[in-house]
Amino acid sequence: MVVISYFFIRHVWFHKRKIHHIAIIEKLEICTIEPDLLLPEINVYYKYYFGGGVYTGRGYLLLTDFLKGEYFLEFNQFHEPILTHNDKTFVSEEHIENYLLSIVDTLSINVDPIEPFHSEIIEIFSQSKSTQNRIQ
Fold first, then answer.
1. Containing H/E element for 15?
2. Which of 66, 86, 113, 128 is deepest in the core (most CB within 10 A)?
3. Mean pLDDT value of segment 122-134
4. Does the pLDDT of residue 48 top 60, yes or no?
């Protein structure tokens, strides 16, 4: 019972001390399983400033968090990913990354003030960076 109480109190205390913060997306990567399977997940690398320092983080988001509506994602014969969305086609991971960054470029994260290198993604923001246009 003491061990269970300890973990419960630790869990509650951990969530109480989190600070809501804004981060900038640095890089996006499409998640793949070799040899020929594309996942509907995006590996997100982000950067945030906290307490006079610059920290980086990494997390995963679904492709549907970025794209509203239907999309089609596949490999071409040269093993490059192809994304089709709203009658637009993007070939290569760099073009897909630029397109997704034009839609969303900032994140809302929770930062641990005691260990600021620990962070987690809460939600993504649209291009206007206002709290009125939250996507999630």
1. helix 2-16
2. 66
3. 61
4. yes
How far is 36 from 20, CA to CA, in rounded Å? Answer: 38
Cα separation values, 15 from 40, 50, 66, 110, 112, Å: 29, 18, 27, 9, 9
- Contact between 44 and 61 under an 8 Å Cβ cutoff? The reply is yes
**What rounded mean pLDDT belongs to the chain?**
85
C-alpha 124/C-alpha 134 separation (Å) is: 7
pLDDT at 117 over 60: yes
Peptide bond into 81 cis (omega under 30): no
DSSP state string for 34-100: TTTEEEEEEEEEEEEEETTEEEEEEEEEEHHHH--S-EEEEE-TTS-EEEEETTEEEESHHHHHHHH
Please tell me the predicted confidence (pLDDT) of residue 116.
Answer: 82
Tokens of 103: 């839609």
* pLDDT score at 127: 56
